[in-house]
Amino acid sequence: MKLRAAPAACPALWRSLPCPQAELRLDLVLSSGQTFRWRESSPGCWTGVLAGRVWTLTQAGERLWYTVYGEEEEAAERHRPTTPVPKRRRLQQPPASGRSPEHLHNADAIAESPGSPGAETDRILRDYFQLDVGLPALYQAWGAADPHFRKVAADFPGVRVLRQDPVECLLSFICTSNNHVARITAMIERLCRAFGRRLCHLDSQPFHTFPTPQALAGAKAEAQLRALGFGYRAKFVSQSARAIAEELGTEGLCGLRAVPYAEARRVLCSLPGVGTKVADCVCLMALDKAEAVPVDTHVWQIAQQCYGAAPGARSLTARVHKEIGDFFRGLWGPYAGWAQAVLFCVDLRKGREPASSGGQPRGGRGRAGGKAGPS
Hints:
Blueprint (H helix, E strand, L loop, with lengths): L14 E4 L7 H4 L8 E5 L2 E6 L2 E8 L2 E7 L2 H7 L38 H12 L6 H11 L1 H7 L12 H9 L6 H15 L2 E5 L2 E4 L4 H4 L4 H7 L5 H16 L1 H5 L6 H9 L6 H11 L10 H11 L10 H15 L3 H15 L25
Antiparallel strand pairs: 1-5, 2-3, 3-4, 4-5, 6-7
Helix pairs in contact: 4-5, 6-10, 6-13, 9-10, 12-13, 15-16
């Protein structure tokens, strides 16, 4: 996506939060297979959909900068008597890295009521990146307990776990079986264009919300998903969406944040297409279970080769998955899933092709796992 120069008044559209890179590295977190809705729209700038809005994020100095694109133009167009050509909006120019904060809208310098738009978008970002969790202290604790972590994590600061919408996280990770990050990202984009609500265009790129369970639960949804290239995953996505829409409910799924890890995992594994790996991904990245350790083939290899865990295991069974998870929980403590996310990111980045090939992961990398079918 080409970034174009924006109007002179554009800097007033940017806000910022204090956020050192030791707490968050956008380039590591948003490309590490936790989420599939962000893309690097220009060097150092990430554009995607969060909480039903389109955002661009970037980092400069010790701050996380962001701008949010509204739907005003699209809403105005919908009320016109004739069907217009969709507007193509420009990406906003990010703040220059060396620019003085006085020239930009500094969110911290303005007293706002809790219900103001700026306070609300700040809250969404803080919640999404879980910025209330101090990451450097966790890195220090993990490194003290684990020499291997201390060695490999030194070059990968700021890898933290996202707090995602449970429906989006669940249905997205059902698509990760026998897959890799680049292909999963393309699948989720097709899913959102076909079933989601259009938010806006930035340059030539349309952005849509993630579909509701009801939108994916219809009688024709599975066939549509197969036509979009989802293969055997189409059945699992549509059936799990139907189970949420008609039985568990979106509120019931979100309510799993308040139950113990084992109970949340059990409920998730009762859904079509959800096995131990997918359940642990959702527990960790959407349901506040920091102790959940998703184990795919790559984490299994790390556990065996670097830690000698699960010796002699020849396949990634549910028993082996639990054995590896218990090993890492014993080593890293209550935030074991976060520590695993760091090692997974290291493994993923080391598996990338050289930059000249486009920076895509080699086949098989990503939150892919194991056998065909549910994982």
